[in-house]
Design brief:
heterodimer; A: mainly alpha; MetI-like fold; B: 309 residues; globular
């Protein structure tokens, strides 16, 4: 079919619009990547516009010699792996029974779950609960309380409902298959896509969270990466020692300041890499996940 | 021993349901412990909480904490800031994902479309700390990208972070930058379910693509738009502290102090934590939210057929 002239103009304007959006989102990211690879002096003098100037790995070298950041990295990895595993198990265990229309307690339990989406105890009562449970300043507080999101339960439940045909269940029940066996042998293998999506959602949540660490943790050796990032990027503080280690010859304030600025750019990259690396591979799944969530089963 | 019929009925019920109940029991206890037990603690808003007395044993003081909050100079300030920040976010940020979704839906070059989607979804996964770090770097007075541009154009450098009046714009536009792509997904999925025969019929009648956007695409996603608008309006008093706390500094508290940051500061961050007082502020906030969402939903139901319940 031939396009009319007005349509051709429309598609052109539309593509230009999308291109502008693309640049607006992409440019700051490219700029930060380029800065992180540039020479400290070029970063502070504003010589970097698009590509790295006098490329070095100095920023990254300084980061990996900093003890705090390594501690934070290991802690965050630990919290993310344990938390995601626990959260996925709990979510699937809740979602499957709630997806079964023949389960007698389905509606009351669903009500108990959804009510928490609209009302909660608030910051202080939750804090008091954690302190009564003895969870303050423990590693467990970073893993356990965040391990079940009702939103993810609903998404998973809707997925179970829409992908596992009821005939399959009826046929297995006639053959004497128990609920446990059906769940393990049929429901789980059919749900790999949704498990990948919620695992990604939980993992990103754990990796990026800083607030619970801020209120519940006191020991620096338990801090996740995000809290160290907050100190360096937001509060602008760092050990003087950490900077001099990177390059022994750095004496004057200006050079030190430049290295600190460079280090911030490198840090932004290092902190975002785990998430942004796996993101393109799971992207097609999570789009599906968001869409399922929007169906409201 | 009850009579046989009841006994068999109960036994049958248990036989049928025990396995699924066993599965759900762990997540259910989890929800009760971490979501319902704290609700018991809400009573401290009406008491003078002291750790030695515990939640139950502390003395009742009625509405004292609420009255203290309403009378304090903070009340007007935090309520105004919360509402202003939300309204600004909503007015500036709500239409952006819709426009982006429509533009993506109209794009015929599949490869280009996929690239735009891949790139615009990505910032959603950056943590708030990193995002605010990026914002601070880019807006930094001496070395920041934006000030470099301003200086290159012959302007004076601007202290973005140190002037309170920029706070709201920084907060809102960094949020739009981060989330416009991801929020567009829901509209893209709504647009993809538009009946293609509508478009075909319109093409036969000679409608241009732009006409079809206004007379087919937009009317088809209006229900989705209304639902999301209700949800957004209902949570207008719900400005999270995570991001505000990171952008806050002594020069912008006049604009940046919102209800949730006040709760955090009064309750946990201060040297003399006032548990009861900040719980009272929290309850005030939840109640306003609750009535807002009910009110907005009622209006939406009166005006059209789309509503949450």
């Amino acid at each position: 079919m031939r396009e009319s002239r007005s349509d051709r103009i429309f598609y052109m304007v539309n593509n230009i619009f999308l291109f502008i959006i693309l640049i607006i989102v992409l440019y700051p990211m490219i700029y930060i990547v380029s800065c992180s690879f540039s020479n400290p002096r070029s970063v502070t003098s504003g010589a970097v516009w698009l590509w790295p100037v006098e490329p070095t790995l100095l920023g990254y070298k300084t980061i990996f010699e900093n003890k705090d950041i390594l501690t934070g990295y290991t802690n965050s990895a630990y919290y993310t792996i344990c938390g995601t595993t626990l959260a996925v198990i709990l979510t699937v265990l809740a979602a499957y029974p709630l997806s079964r229309k023949d389960y007698a307690l389905r509606n009351p339990i669903m009500l108990i779950f959804t009510f928490t989406m609209f009302f909660g105890g608030g910051l202080i009562p939750t804090y008091l609960l954690m302190s009564n449970l003895g969870l303050i300043n423990t590693r467990a507080v970073m893993i356990i309380p965040g391990a079940l999101s009702v939103y993810n339960v609903i998404v998973t439940r809707t997925y179970f409902q829409s992908t596992i045909p009821i005939e399959l269940l009826e046929a297995s029940q006639i053959d004497g298959c128990s609920d446990f066996t059906f769940f393990r042998k049929v429901a789980l293998p059919l749900s790999k896509a949704i498990i990948a999506v919620i695992a990604l959602f939980y993992a990103v949540g754990y990796w990026n969270s800083y607030f619970s660490a801020l209120i519940y943790l006191h020991d620096r050796e338990k801090y996740p990466l995000q809290l160290f990032l907050r100190e360096i990027l937001i509060q602008n503080t760092i050990d003087a020692e950490a900077l001099s280690k990177g390059q022994m010859s750095i004496e004057d304030m200006a050079a030190r300041q430049s290295l600190f600025e460079l280090l911030k750019y490198s840090l932004i990259i290092v902190a975002s890499i785990p998430v942004l690396c796996i993101y393109p591979f799971i992207q097609k799944y999570f789009v599906k996940g968001v869409m399922i969530g929007s169906l409201k089963g | 021993m009850p009579d046989n019929k009841t006994y068999f009925y109960i036994k049958k019920w248990i036989d049928k349901n025990w396995q699924l109940t066993l599965m759900v029991i762990l997540p259910l206890s989890f929800i009760i412990l971490f979501h319902y037990v704290p609700m018991y603690g809400i009573q401290i808003a009406f008491k003078n909480y002291r750790a030695v007395d515990g939640i139950w044993g502390s003395k009742w003081v009625g509405f004292d904490h609420f009255i203290k909050f309403f009378k304090s100079y903070q009340f007007i300030r935090v309520t105004r800031n919360t509402i202003m920040l939300s309204l600004y976010s909503l007015i500036a940020g709500f239409p952006v994902p819709i426009i982006l979704a429509i533009a993506l839906n109209c794009c015929k070059n599949i490869k280009f479309k996929k690239t735009v989607q891949l790139v615009t979804y990505a910032p959603h996964f950056i943590s708030v700390v990193v995002l605010m770090g990026m914002v601070i770097q880019i807006l930094s007075p001496k070395y920041g990208l934006l000030n470099n541009v301003i200086k290159a154009l012959g302007g004076e450098e601007v202290l973005f972070m140190a002037e309170g009046r920029y706070f709201r714009s920084i907060y809102v536009w960094s949020g739009i930058w981060q989330n416009m792509g991801f929020s567009a997904i829901i509209y893209i999925s709504a647009l993809s379910s538009v009946d293609p025969t509508l478009h075909e019929a319109a093409i036969v009648d000679g409608a241009s693509r732009l006409k079809r956007v206004f007379y087919i695409d937009i009317p088809c996603i209006v229900p989705t738009i209304v639902i999301l608008l209700i949800l957004n309006l209902g949570s207008i008093m719900n400005v999270g502290f995570e991001k505000v706390l990171l952008l806050q500094n002594p020069t912008n508290t006049e604009y940046s102090e919102v209800i949730s940051t006040l709760i955090y500061k009064q309750g946990l961050a201060s040297a003399m934590p006032q548990y009861s007082y900040s719980t009272a502020i929290g309850i005030f906030n939840s109640l306003v939210n609750f009535f807002l969402i009910v009110g907005v939903n009622t209006i939406a139901r009166k005006l059209g057929e789309t509503s949450l319940w």
